[in-house]
Amino acid sequence: MIVVGGEALIDLVPVAQPPGALVPRPGGGPYNTALALGRLGARTAFCSRVSADGFGESLLDGLRAAGVDLSLVQRGPEPTTLAVPSLAPDGSAAYRFYVEGTADRLFTLPRALPAGTRALALGTCSLALEPGASAYEALLRRESGRGLLTLLDPNIRPALIGDPTAYRARFLGWLPYVSVLKLSEEDARWLGGRVSDWLAAGPSAVVLTRGAQGLSVRTREGAQYEVPARRVAVADTIGAGDTVNAALLHRLSALPAGDPVDWPAVLAYAAHAAALTCTRAGAEPPYAAELGG
Fold first, then answer.
1. What is the share, in percent, of the chain residues with pLDDT greater than 70?
2. How far apart are CA 55 and CA 86, in angstroms?
3. Closest Cα to residue 9, out of 25, 21, 33?
4. Which of 32, 34, 83, 152 allows an S-S link to 283, with CB 3.0 to 4.6 Å?
5. How many CB atoms lie within 10 A of CB 16?
6. For position 90, what pLDDT does the model report?
């Protein structure tokens, strides 16, 4: 079982016709990661607090359709978080968020994760917005202490971070509890650190997404690998990084403890999955059959 913790929200995605129209689509980095894992065939549970409004119901319907376990989902009467992406000509997205008083911010620490859980993934808004951020941080520390594979994707959203200095310090405090740190080049620049320093703080590997340049990884042992991005017709890049999270978790969590990681193969699988996501509007990750299993 892989548990993904964090927000589920609605992306109001711009469409060409009619001009100025916005179409609601399910989103949120952790939500997209859980959805992608379910579609890849991984046993997955989503751990969050989701609104009881219509948007919340539609979000859970999407996870159910992908076979994701919802036993860790908390419910609340508060509204669903909204995100409005603006798309650049290359399909990349920037976001405005509506988060005040929304359900996912009120997440509380669950007593235990399901028996057989092997991995935990966290990131994005959920680690930036209190009071839920402290609960997710406590979950990371607790489950890392139990020996779980942990993946952190900070997926920085500057508009939601009121005190960048405090956030950067908090990020460094998470690293001793992280097995794999995955982040984009933009995230790395915003955080302002060095991969070597992050590896020294705890993670066994740092995976960097580089857009059209592909993916790279550096390990604590000093190994480095790169794979190119697949050339596709890009609709937008929404959910591509989240699909990378899912692909990494799917492959890494299946390894017996102590087995070496074939990083070129893992990165190539993630690049393929992310490329398929980019060919579709909104966060629509691929199914296992589209990747050959």
1. 97
2. 21
3. 25
4. 32
5. 6
6. 64
| Rounded-to-integer distance, Cα 248 and Cα 206, Å | 12
Which pLDDT tens digit goes with each residue over 237-289? 888 999 999 999 999 999 887 789 999 999 999 999 999 998 987 788 999 99
Note whether 36 and 247 are within 8 A (CB).
yes
Which residues in 107-145 are b (16+ Cβ under 10 Å) and which e? Answer: beebeebeeebbbbbbbbbbbbbeebbebbbebbebbbe
- Model confidence over 116-145: pLDDT tens digits? 999 999 999 999 999 999 999 999 999 999
25/117 Cα distance (integer angstroms): 29
Per-residue pLDDT at 48: 98
Please report the DSSP string for 225-290 in residue order: EEEPPPP---S--TTHHHHHHHHHHHHHTTSPTTPPP-HHHHHHHHHHHHHHHHTSSSS-PPPGGG
**pLDDT over threshold 90, residue 224:** yes
Region of residue 101 (phi > 0: left; psi between -120 and 50: alpha; otherwise: beta):
left
- Whole-angstrom Cα distance, residue 91 to residue 109? 36
- Taking residue 97's Cβ as centre, other Cβ atoms within 10 Å add up to 17
Residue 87 has pLDDT above 80, yes or no: no
**Facing residues of 3 across strands?**
45, 120
By the 8 A CB rule, do 244 and 207 touch? yes
DSSP, collapsed to helix, strand or coil, labels residue 68 as coil
The percent of the chain in helix, strand and coil, each rounded to the nearest 5, is: 40, 25, 40
Only one residue has tokens 């909204």, namely 82
Q: What is the rounded distance in angstroms from the CA atom of residue 253 to the CA atom of residue 236?
A: 28
